[in-house]
Amino acid sequence: MMKHQIRKVLVLGSGALKIGEAGEFDYSGSQALKALREEGIHTVLINPNIATVQTSEGVADTVYFLPVTPLFVGKIIEKERPDGILLAFGGQTALNCGVELYRQGTLARYGVRVLGTPVEAIIETEDRRLFADKLHAIGVDTPRSIAVTTAEEARAAAGELGFPIIVRAAFTLGGQGSGFCSNMDELERLAGNAFSYSGQILIEESLKGWKEIEYEVVRDKYDNCITVCNMENFDPLGIHTGESIVVAPSQTLSNAEYHKLRSISIQIVRSVGIVGECNVQFALDPDSEAYRVIEVNARLSRSSALASKATGYPLAHVAAKLALGYGLHELKNSVTRTTSALFEPALDYIVCKIPRWDLNKFTGVSKEIGSSMKSVGEVMSIGRNFEEAIQKGLRMTGLGLHGFVANEHLDFPDLDQSLSEPTDMRIYALAEAFSRGYSVERLHELTRIDAWFLQGLANISRMAAKLAGLTLGTISPEQMLAAKRLGFSDFQLARLLLGGESGSMHERLLKVRAWRSAHQIKPVIKQIDTLAAEYPAFTNYLYLTYNGDVSDIAPPDDKKSVVVLGSGAYRIGSSVEFDWSGVNALQTIRKLDYRPVMINYNPETVSTDYDMCDRLYFDELSFERVMDILEAEQPLGTILSTGGQIANNLAMRLYRSGVEILGTSPVNIDMAEDRHKFSSLLDRLGVDQPRWRELSSMSEIEAFASEVGYPLLIRPSYVLSGAAMNVVSNPEDLNHFLQVAAKVSKEHPVVVSEFIESAKEIEVDAVAANGGLVVYAISEHVEFAGVHSGDATIVFPAQKLYLETTRRIKRITRQIAGALEISGPFNIQFLAKDNHIKVIECNLRASRSFPFVSKVLKINFIDLATRVMLGEAVEVPHKNMFDIDYLGIKASQFSFSRLAKADPVLGVDMASTGEVACLGETFHDALLKAMFSVGYRMPERGVLISSGDVKSKVQLLEPARMLVAKGIPLFATRGTARFLEENGIQAGVLHWPDEAQTPNTLEYIRERRVDLVINIPKDLSKTELHNDYTIRRSAIDFNIPLITNAQLAAAFITAGCRLTTDELELKPWNEYGGW
Amino acid sequence: MSFNGYSFGHTGSVSGEVVFNTAMTGYPESLTDPSYRGQILVLTYPLIGNYGVPDKVSEAGLPAFFESEQIHVSGLVISSYSEQYSHWNADRSLASWLAVHSIPAIEGIDTRALTQIIREHGAMTGKIVVDGEEVNWRDPNSENLVAEVSTKEVIRYGNGRLRILLVDLGVKYNIIRHFLKRDTTVIRVPWDYDFSNPEYDGLFLSNGPGDPKQCEATIRHLKRQLSQPIPVFGICLGNQLMALASGADTFKLRYGHRSHNQPVLQAGTNKALVTSQNHGFAIDSKTLGSKWQEWFINLNDGTNEGIRHRELPHFSVQFHPEASSGPTDTEYLFDEFLSEVSRFSGR
Q: With an 8 Å Cβ cutoff, are B255 and A534 in contact?
């Protein structure tokens, strides 16, 4: 049934992954594109995020790797002339871009229809004031807020609202001058302070401690509405929903409350005129049915992705169909295939979403969590009680924790503060508090977390205490089952029951497993079927639980299934690229007539979509759970190498338990992973590597330092605070780092490596079969070695390598592939200086850059690798990287603006949260498009340079001259200005931030008299000067593009001075190199 | 077939028809719903008891948070009982409430597996047996459950403009609340009350338990009434009685509708609604007389969800516009009925 006359639709993606806008939009965009394709519509996608599934072959008809900005999208509209555009599937980036194009009249000029929710409605929901007025007009409550301009008015407002209240200074950055007051005295003080920032302050009612509840609402053009899911935040209001532990469905709401909020959310969606999907967030008084609407998102969101995975309801797919004009009642529930899409999923389980933070990767960042988002990923766990779900979820976050209890001891010097002022570790502060005997009532007072959740945690804590008094010899099967039903893992049980025994934790864990097996205590497999078993369903969406007796399914026992391990929570260093790899492995497995089976627990992924594989286990990637699943599945084999490091780390343990691992032998994976073994292998092969030692005392380290010289790269095995890796440039740095931030001892040795300065870093991504190279790709970094490969700007094919270097790299790659008998994907990182080549790392798995090189070269490395792993004969592709007449450049996306106080400087530890890549026929063209895609703009008003050491200063001379030639004013700190002047370049001198003199760097940043800041650290150590930190941080806080690397700054400025935006190529992917 | 779990609530054995409901909220409402009379209720949502049980405050002569004066289910089967509860209006735990009303309950059951069995074999009789304490099998469908749950006397509520005669076949109090909110006087009468004397402006047939064909007296009275122009509205069992009185037939569904998420389409329109339902019998729409038409249809299985007379203001629905528990999207039907009543009575 065709509901429309739409032939071509433009879909906007969300660009690079960043904090607050991550993989969920690959899921929603991919589903939308699929939905459009089913209708025979030609789809055009603009998204520079090359690692996504949506930008893969066969998803959209035409793909542009270009910035999702009004300028570029406008040009593509002019070129492609689509009939319609979808704005709701690419997060806030796509929405903002679409709104801007509407305002500029571009959409009207080219007759492009916005499909789904009208733009006017979106604009209305984005303006807080207008929207609050609209809600009041239909009788819906929003937080009460009164704007005042005098202390007297402030007192009157407080009297009207009643304490506690929040004072907010209007128009300030970062919440300056804001705070809570619970009486008139506090108000006087705070209001006085706030007025010093701003002439107007807002007196708002405080909703601190209220419950936070969300609904996902869907509406069609016939005004039919459903709510797909509601969700309840474990953390009460005050903590961003992206920072909260969230459960679905709500657990502490009565029927009356549930349906009151449900009907209000429908009322709002109707009054806005949504066609598609909308998220409504409420605050709910814990002591009455009073509520406030706190946010409405008129688009697919992180919460809608979660709701979709939590319920099995394909929200994005349905929303896309509704945008084309279908009614909900005209669509089928794609899970049951027989029942209607107009229904509200009934869950018979509880899901628990837990954020994943990576705050340790950043220097100086505040660990407190609150109203702005800092987490970089999330997990979703499924259980049949809260205890089971939350323990599973805490393990999934992958921070070395084993659940709520039985973790390494964590230190909470001021426990009450850790409870009342939440940080990323608060859940463990709760565990500590229970073990110290705090009551649920006391904890509720301190945290305002609903007592029901706290009681669940108390149950876990009580069980842990009980288990600690038992051993594997004394525990009864009933007690064991009770513990498993509360989500205890074998690891936790091993620690509690076998604490005194010898042997590694893994050996003890195996004893627990054997005991359970002997007593028939095993989990069952349950389906997520959207309607709690009321009707039969054809769902392949599964989880394991101990709260049940019967499995819903029995996997076929014919050795035709292949299990692929997913990549888990997105985190710094592992994100959407591994989802792409996993999805591609599944697709190839299916093409080869095997049944693909996926294990993953990340709700922001495409690999966990309902139609990607034959069976999806939404469950843990722990040894225990993977073994449980493999025992049930009895697959042909298991693929680890497309899931990143989590999957790779399981290789040896699974192998020793008799699991058939497809591809390279785990013994050889281990040889590459183990520093000592790999090092001896390289020595045997005669391949060079930077000198390194594993050392356990300061004197040894000092002796090694005098042998190889500074700088040194230090990798401690035990980190007290801050980043795990560091470069030290002198003995003082070394002492400081190893005393303040890390430990060095016999138990905690430190790996120290020589650090080669000004070296090129080169990467090889490749696939081998039985040790023979099948395909390879050589890329180079724009930055010198020292910037983590995940943060570096990468060029493929490498453009500036000596042929000799290339040849040597290829030879070493062959040698290593042969020596490790590689069958499958792998990646090697090299350093090159003056044709000297050293290997720094080798991973026998897909790497971050696999989608990038696959898409640039148009040879799918994962497809080839999967064929190899399944024993298919593969042909060596005809073309290679030397044949292509264009190139791709991958640039990194940083999220420093979300991480208050973090030093936005790059180093050996990765800090970026996402990446993009653009294609071009020239380096400059591709680089500019990539840099624009991650938020850079060419400067017009002025550039502030403080350029670090002499080498950096020299590298920036030519670019500085080009800027001057273009008439762009230069400003510099004293030393840099002097250097520039000596070389004939005039720059205005600006004083350092701590000098109370004008003209001052800070003043120029605040007043935005510069629109590019280049601040190059003097060396690679983290103990940077405070002034430089202040310049960098201010640039971030005032949203001014910042570059901290001389090579990248030089390349960007050169490209931007050579090419204007109008000269950039706007070719779709398929027109590069012909197809 | 047996499942083992742990007893809570009343310690004792019980037999009844085992049915399930997939609602995720509303156990106090469900347990006091007279339609569950004689049934052992399996809740598929695994976490029950979280928000306790509200106190028995009264509003307009009705308990504010319950659907009747007592618990009607015979027994309760769940997966995981939350001993500790947390809610501002909670008065006691679910277990203690069940104990006071002598209702046995069992937890630790694989309710999903049990539901699949009931789904495939149809609702069947079952038992909760505590410590081997024997109890006789009971099949409530052979009993006149309506007579058991219906009021024994005429009760009047409110003092509003329009007089509604409410035939109590096991009425949920939220229906009465909905009428009272809309300026009516509700005259609640027993199931076999002879309502041929027009002392009212509109007639309402409530929900209730069991096989509709057991309500012979009601059907007899209704048959006479359906030739009259007085507005008639029925819900759930009331819908089935409307059909039987008009000469149509009812049958037992293969998969009963017991959930908060049943989609219905208003026939001949694009208007679709999510409804709360709890029924095992349905109208066979093929047997509808020429004067009647299908009003609502279930989008999942195509079964009848409501009928209406082509000329007279007589209509009824299979779902629960009064909700409680469940979605409230069809509340507007009370307004539609009352506007017919208003037009008819001229008040």
A: yes
Q: Which residues 239-258 in chain A show a CB within 8 A of chain B? A: 249-256, 258
**What is the distance between the alpha carbons of residues A942 and A470, in angstroms, rounded to a whole number?**
70
Among residues B67, B221, B320, B340, which one is catalytic? Answer: B320
Interval A461-485 mean pLDDT:
97
Please tell me the distance from the alpha carbon of residue B243 to that of residue B223, in angstroms, as a whole number.
10
List CB contacts (< 8 A) between A350 and chain B: 46-47
In sequence order, the 6+-apart residues with CB closer than 8 A to the CB of A440 are A451, A454, A455, A458, B84
The string of DSSP letters for B152-214 reads SS-EEE---SEEEEEE-SS--HHHHHHHHHTSEEEEEE-TT----S--SSEEEE---SS-GGG
Distance of residue B202 Cα from the nearest chain A Cα, in angstroms: 28
Contact: A535, B119; criterion CB under 8 Å:
yes
Q: What are the structure tokens assigned to A18, written together?
A: 């960043």
Which residues of B fall within a CB distance of 8 Å from A345? 261
Residues 6+ apart with CB under 8 A from A467: A475, A479, A483, A488, A493, A496, A497
Confirm if B80 and B47 have CB atoms less than 8 A apart: yes
ipTM over 0.90: yes
Closest CA–CA distance from residue B69 to any residue of chain A (Å): 18
Q: Kindly state the DSSP code that residue A409 receives in the 8-state scheme.
A: P
What beta strand segments (E) does B202-291 contain? 202-205, 232-235, 249-266, 272-284
Query: In this predicted model, what pLDDT tens digit does every residue of A1048-1066 receive, in sequence order?
Result: 999 999 999 999 999 999 9
Q: A287 CB near a chain B CB, below 8 Å?
A: yes
Top-confidence residue, A908 or A842: A842
What is the per-residue pLDDT across A386-411, written as a single tens digit (0 to 9) for each? Answer: 999 999 999 999 888 899 999 988 88
pLDDT, residue A1022, reads 52
Phi, psi of A1015 (to 5 degrees): -130, 110
B320 is catalytic: yes
pTM, whole model, 2 decimals?
Answer: 0.95
Summary mean pLDDT of chain B: 95
Please tell me the distance from the alpha carbon of residue A842 to that of residue A1009, in angstroms, as a whole number: 46
Tokens read off for B147 = 């007579």
Distance from CA of B10 to the nearest CA of A (A): 23
Q: What is the pLDDT of residues A802-827, one digit of tens each?
A: 999 999 999 999 999 999 999 999 99
Interhelix angle for A184-197 vs A151-161, to 10°?
Answer: 130
Q: How confident is the model at residue A1025 (pLDDT cuts 50, 70, 90)?
A: confident
B257 is catalytic: no
